[in-house]
């Protein structure tokens, strides 16, 4: 009698990174390297002025590899600090939006009724409010600053998170794994944090990944208008605004922060598309298993 041995199924091959993912990693890696490396170099000082050495072109002076601005300040140091400031503000804004939107949407989707109606009214009012005009009105009373811009954007960009979270929570609130703990004496807070939130959070991460590039552009636009980081602290938007005065003679003053901003936005967009596609596939497979 012949014995037939069945070989175990082969492990699925790990997918190779696509060119888009590689490009995104390279772009974001360059931006992060620019933010982390210059502060470790000797002579790093984004605020030191040298009028005698103003408007030095890139690679013209060894002490200033990327040149100097109109006040003789080192552009490498200023672009590096601007990158750190912008990425820090972007991370804070996205985190605030994710936390506020997820919490609001979770409550609206789980409780429904008047809570959901109230959240809907607040969401529509928030969407109808122009962020730039709101920030201008606030800056008429309070001095503009990075903290003010972060708080305003963090408190007005959460509607997309709330709506997606509400839809998911509303669809899951009648499922057995949500209802069963209530019949055994568990409180609603326990159900929300231990059963609904883990199923909602992946959707929040998808939105957050796609929002990074949008927040960078919006934040830089506000800084260009003078509504964000204030001098002498540099930012991409303010550096582009200051450099356009010398666009004909010294185009690199505008081009350098513009190139870094392009790398950050394009890299974030490339990686977010891949992350979104993989996360949605994982969520669909998880839903099929249930």
Question: TL;DR of this structure?
Answer:
67% of the residues lie in helices and 0% in strands. The protein is mainly alpha-helical and 290 residues long.
What are its keywords?
290 residues, single chain, elongated, MetI-like fold, 10 helices, mainly alpha
Structure, explained:
This protein is mainly α and 290 residues long. It has one domain: MetI-like fold, CATH 1.10.3720.10. It has 10 helices and no strands. It has helices at 19-36, 75-111, 113-127, 131-139, 146-156, 159-172, 176-183, 188-224, 236-243, 252-289. It is elongated and about 75 Å long. The mean pLDDT is 86.
| CATH fold naming | MetI-like fold
Give the N-terminus to C-terminus distance in angstroms. Answer: 42 Å
CATH architecture: Orthogonal Bundle
Integer tally of domains: 1
The major sheet is characterized as: none
Radius of gyration from the alpha-carbon trace, in angstroms: 24 Å
Oligomeric state of the chains present here: single chain
Helix content: 55-70%
Give the SSE layout.
Layout: H1 19-36, H2 75-111, H3 113-127, H4 131-139, H5 146-156, H6 159-172, H7 176-183, H8 188-224, H9 236-243, H10 252-289
Helix pairs in contact: 1-2, 1-10, 2-3, 2-5, 2-6, 2-8, 2-10, 6-8, 7-8, 8-9, 8-10, 9-10
């Amino acid at each position: 009698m012949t014995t037939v041995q069945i070989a175990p199924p082969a492990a699925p091959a790990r997918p190779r990174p696509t060119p888009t993912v590689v490009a995104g990693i390279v772009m974001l890696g360059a931006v992060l390297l620019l933010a982390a490396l210059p502060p470790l170099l000797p002579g790093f000082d984004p605020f030191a002025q040298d009028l005698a050495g103003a408007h030095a072109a890139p690679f013209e002076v060894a002490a200033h590899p990327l040149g100097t601005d109109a006040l003789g300040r080192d552009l490498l140091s200023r672009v590096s600090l601007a990158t750190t400031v912008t990425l820090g503000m972007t991370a804070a804004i996205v985190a605030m939006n994710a936390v506020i939107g997820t919490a609001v949407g979770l409550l609206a989707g789980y409780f429904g009724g008047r809570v959901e109606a109230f959240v809907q009214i607040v969401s529509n009012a928030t969407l109808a409010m122009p962020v730039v005009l709101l920030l201008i009105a606030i800056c008429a009373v309070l001095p503009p600053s990075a903290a003010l811009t972060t708080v305003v954007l963090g408190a007005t960009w959460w509607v997309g998170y709330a709506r997606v979270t509400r839809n998911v929570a509303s669809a899951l609130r009648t499922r057995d794994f949500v209802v069963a703990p209530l019949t055994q004496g568990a409180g609603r807070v326990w159900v929300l944090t231990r059963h609904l939130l883990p199923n909602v959070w992946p959707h929040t991460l998808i939105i957050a990944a796609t929002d990074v590039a949008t927040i960078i552009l919006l934040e830089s636009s506000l800084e260009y208008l003078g509504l964000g980081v204030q001098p002498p602290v540099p930012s991409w938007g303010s550096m582009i605004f200051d450099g356009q005065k010398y666009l004909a003679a010294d185009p690199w003053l505008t081009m350098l922060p513009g190139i870094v901003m392009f790398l950050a936005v394009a890299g974030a967009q490339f990686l977010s598309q891949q992350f979104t596609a993989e996360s949605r596939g994982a969520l669909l497979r998880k839903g099929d298993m249930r």
